[in-house]
Design brief:
Blueprint lengths: L14 H9 L9 E8 L7 E2 L5 E2 L4 H6 L8 H8 L5 E2 L9 E8 L11 H14 L5 E5 L5 H11 E2 L4 E5 L12 H14 L5 E5 L2 E4 L4 E2 L8 E2 L7 E3 L3 E3 L14 E2 L7 E5 L6 H8 L5 E6 L10 H12 L3 E6 L11 H8 L3 E2 L5 H12 L6 H8 L20 H8 L5 H21 L3 H9 L14 H8 L2 H9 L14 H7 L3 H9 L8 H13 L3 H10 L13 H7 L3 H9 L14 H7 L3 H23 L1
Parallel strand pairs: 1-5, 1-6, 6-8, 8-9, 16-17, 17-18, 18-19
Antiparallel strand pairs: 2-3, 4-5, 7-15, 9-10, 10-13, 11-12, 13-14
Helix pairs in contact: 4-5, 5-10, 7-8, 10-11, 13-14, 13-15, 15-16, 15-17, 17-18, 17-20, 18-20, 19-21, 21-22, 21-23, 22-24, 23-24
The structure holds aspartic acid (ASP).
Length: 627
């Protein structure tokens, strides 16, 4: 990551404060915090005007300015909480649930997005990977010209994504007097810190869109992006309203990973009347491996052009994957017409309603999957991998939709009322099904339109409840249904925190296997472990250990769990701690070791155990010094 950080500068977010984020993911404030990493890659949003009035990116200027804008940085709070060189902090508004804390990583080569290449996409994906566990969400500041290509590519490269990634930019620089940049940036930060939408999104104007459904539609409007074939995931007006039912959730038990290679032998070929077969032939020549063919209307090409058909057939026979999408701004290809069928017969596959950006970047991704043979790659191009295409009929609301039925009987009808009802009903019913261990009910609730990750008023989801309840079958079922493992409730607890607090060891292992990571303020964790050690609760300490905690973590008095186990004379706990790397030499703020505490309170068993551990360590180190 340091490769990409801007040069160290007194007023910027540098390596040092990135380190402070890693060490202390959560501050000790009352309001829960949402941590966001901003990757600033370039584009108009951060540009400034030079002496000639021309827009140019200037290294470090963006971050320096951020600290001066009260809408973008609550200096008083930030300095009180993190010191002068800490991260940036958004001012709190009455409606926010979380304090937004953000760090900015400025790329060394700030670029106009017309200069972006696949190398930059890979670089962004790798940067997200490196800091994935330290942040709740990511905002990528990007030029608008190729923004949809980047968003689409990232949606494929970031596999089993469990956190939100928002790509945004602006038509005018953020620090111009009139600019769309400020709103786009602020809304993106707030959404990234507060909402669990595990997708690569684009935010622009007032809409949060699925990234791989977007195209740049206007060179000048503040609503520059459209999502022709899919509704917004959320709208940010006075209220931020999320359409939870349309969120794409990956339903596997895999950890988040980055597929960091792409096949560059891909291209976009747009048909036009009188296109020559020579042009088609040249276009399809080796080394090309994948082509997005933009045909007419619902996927048609001229049926009287055997010369073109011949070239297409020859290419698909050679193994080139040709994906048919429409030139129209909206709609889907199908083989409803003879002209479309002809393409299918000659090996061209349907790209359904994919945008050109999504189809091209998906090809680059699919073709770079060496573990897939050609037939699998062709199948994957026609499969909905990240919500980028609609196969068959778009899902419609069924008359038996549960919320609608209840709404009818309560005589509620507006969309807002329906949404509100759904947000109350579904979390309650999902929790009830979890408590009854009723997997069939969980599945049918999802069919009725419940978002499996929807939280109740306390921010708790069905997965939180299931981790407390402890039935691993229910937990596995929720994960397979797409439940998000990273959601923090109002008390900043994730499902993993609950599994630890209820000593659900098998569930802890499963959550970790699916990419959950241990988080929280180190001192608070230290305090909880010390409390467990005080009462000899070895099982709880095992839970912490399984989750990846450091058993030598201190509490505010500098005491470790070993100090407390010694003080309260719990030999079994002492043995467990020593076997698992607890440091018997650790001193508390009074300068005392665990053994000294045990001696002071005459805890005999503890004193004996700690004395022998000390002897063992002395013997070991003497042996080492002799070798
Ligand atoms: N040319 C700029 C870019 O794409 C336009 C913008 O940022 O809006 O980087």
């Amino acid at each position: 990551m340091s490769r990409l950080l801007c040069e160290s500068h007194a007023d910027i977010n540098n390596d040092e404060n990135m380190e402070s984020v890693k060490k202390s993911p959560t501050g000790l404030t009352n309001k829960p915090e949402g941590r966001v990493l901003v990757l600033y890659t370039g584009g108009t949003i951060g540009m400034v005007r030079n002496e000639e009035g021309v827009l140019v990116p200037i290294a470090n200027a963006f971050i320096k300015n951020l600290r001066r804008y009260p809408q973008l940085h609550d200096r008083e709070y930030a300095e009180k909480t993190f010191g002068a060189m800490g991260p940036l902090v958004l001012p709190m508004t009455a409606t926010d649930n979380r304090r937004v804390i953000y760090n900015v990583l400025e790329y060394s080569n700030l670029c106009d997005s017309s200069n972006m290449t696949m190398d930059e996409w890979i670089r962004i994906a790798n940067d997200i990977k490196e800091s994935y566990e330290y942040f709740d969400g990511f905002v990528i500041l990007h030029g608008t010209d190729t923004l949809s290509y980047t968003a689409s590519a990232l949606s494929f490269m970031l596999e089993s994504l469990g956190k939100i990634v928002i790509v945004t930019g602006s038509q005018m620089p953020i620090f111009d007097t009139r600019s769309d940049g400020l709103d786009n940036f602020l809304a993106s930060l707030v959404i990234a810190a507060n909402y669990s939408i595990p997708e690569v999104c684009v935010f622009f104007g007032t809409n949060l869109l699925r990234g791989n459904r977007t195209s740049k539609a206007s060179a000048s409007s503040f609503e520059a992006f459209h999502s022709p074939n899919f509704p917004p995931l959320a709208t940010a007006n006075i209220k931020i309203e999320v359409n939870y039912r349309s969120i794409f959730r990956s339903c596997n038990l895999e950890k988040f990973s980055v597929h960091a290679s792409l096949n560059r032998n891909v291209g976009l070929l747009r048909l036009f009347p009188s296109i020559t077969s020579d042009l088609v032939k040249v276009f399809l020549q080796s080394p090309i491996e994948g082509v997005v063919l933009q045909s007419y209307g619902m996927g048609n090409l001229p049926t009287n052009r055997d010369d073109i058909i011949k070239e297409l057939r020859a290419a698909t026979k050679r193994g080139v994957i040709i994906v048919n999408i429409t030139q129209c701004a909206t709609g889907c290809v199908s083989d409803a017409y003879e002209a479309g069928k002809l393409l299918r017969k000659n090996g061209v596959i349907l790209g359904f309603d994919m945008t050109p950006e999504a189809a091209l970047t998906k090809l680059a991704y699919v073709l770079s999957k060496h573990e897939w043979d050609t037939e699998t790659k062709r199948q994957m191009m026609q499969t909905n991998l990240r919500g980028e295409l609609t196969v068959g009929q778009p899902p419609t609301l069924q008359d038996w939709d549960l919320v609608e039925a209840v709404a009818k009987s309560l005589r509620l009808s507006s969309t807002a009322e329906l949404q509100e009802l759904g947000s109350i009903l579904f979390p309650a019913m999902l929790s009830a099904a979890v408590i009854r261990r009723d997997i069939i009910k969980l599945e049918s609730l999802q069919r009725y339109g419940a978002d499996i990750s929807q939280a109740n008023a306390d921010g708790r989801t069905a997965l939180h409840i299931a981790c407390c309840e402890g039935d691993i079958k229910v937990v596995r079922c929720l994960l397979k249904m797409g439940a998000n493992i990273h959601i923090k409730d109002r008390f900043d607890r994730t499902p993993l925190t609950d599994a630890i607090e209820y000593d659900r060891h098998e569930i802890i292992k499963l959550l970790l296997q699916c990419g959950a990571h241990f988080h929280g303020n180190a001192l608070l964790i230290g305090e909880r472990m010390c409390a467990a050690a005080s009462v000899g609760n070895t099982k709880r300490l095992q839970s912490y250990l399984l989750a990846g905690a450091d058993l030598s973590q201190k509490d505010v008095s500098g005491r470790t769990p070993l100090h407390f186990a010694a003080l309260h004379n719990h030999p079994e706990t002492i043995e467990f701690l020593l076997e698992n790397g607890a440091d018997p030499h650790c001193l508390d703020i009074l300068g005392q070791t665990a053994a000294e505490l045990a001696e002071t309170v005459r805890a005999e068993n503890a004193t004996r155990l700690l004395a022998s551990s000390r002897r063992n360590i002395v013997v070991e180190s003497t042996a080492k010094s002799h070798t």
